[in-house]
Amino acid sequence: MVTPTGEATDQADGPGPERPAAAPAAEQKRAKQHSMLRETGGIVLTALIISLLVKTFLVQAFYVPSGSMEPTLHGCPGCRDDRIMVSKLSTHLGGIHRGDVVVFRDRFGWLPDQPASDRGLRGHLHSFLTFIGLAPASAESDLVKRVIAVGGDTVVGRDGAVYVDGAKLTEPYLYPGSNASGPTRFRVTVPQGSLWVMGDHRDASADSRAHMNGPGHGFVRVDDVVGRAFAVVWPLDRATILRRPPTFDQPVLQRHG
Asked: Is the pTM of this model over 0.70?
């Protein structure tokens, strides 16, 4: 078109096309925050699922609340309880062997009844973290002992010594001065699919010996084994790998187990 002064303009006769309005900065910021929250939530959820799967099928942490396995494992009221790592693949890959330190479920009521208590929010939070594998479980609800004999073995305790299939055990892992067999003589044959377990602190361990007259007759079912303890990871000054001792390498014990 032409202006009254006769100068041409580049303005179109009609209204030009509308430009899209730019998103307000605040809206862009909110969208970015929502995206970050979704990503963070996804990462946390994935981590929780992985932790739960690892705890359920592979490895779980436990802490030791008693002194029945001293000096191998420390634990007592007011002490720095040992934290141990337990492999759950043991019963499926290679099985359980004599000399292994195992955690097992208390099927036959070896543990004393625990008084009910309201643990509050902190206790429930710890239970949740334990369930998903982010906090160590307590051996107060399970037990930890050393496997002395497996299915088919005959175990004899007498005169301060333990014999398995006639072979006298030399047990360097015992608490100093501990009576290896205890005050009472015993002779048992372990059923197939079961274990005979004892604590390393024999004078302070209510193990298979103490339950021979109760349900299960002192035997632990292999199916009740949670897993094999393979390492102490806390406190750091006690961190170590738990290896099977050479005590059970005698030829007579190599026939099975």
From this structure: yes
Q: Please identify every residue annotated as catalytic.
A: 68, 145
Distance CA 77, CA 80 (A): 9
Residues 6 or more apart whose Cβ sits within 8 Å of residue 91 = 222, 223, 225, 227
Closest residue by Cα to residue 179 from 155, 199, 149: 199
Give domain status of residue 69, yes or no. yes
The 10s digit of each residue's pLDDT in 120-162 is 665 555 455 554 444 455 545 789 999 999 999 999 999 999 9
Distance of alpha carbon 134 from alpha carbon 137, whole angstroms = 9
Q: 60 in helix, strand or coil?
A: strand
Number of domains the chain contains = 2
Residues 209 and 211: their CA atoms lie apart, in Å, by: 6
CATH for 70 = 2.10.109.10
Does residue 33 share a domain with residue 160? no
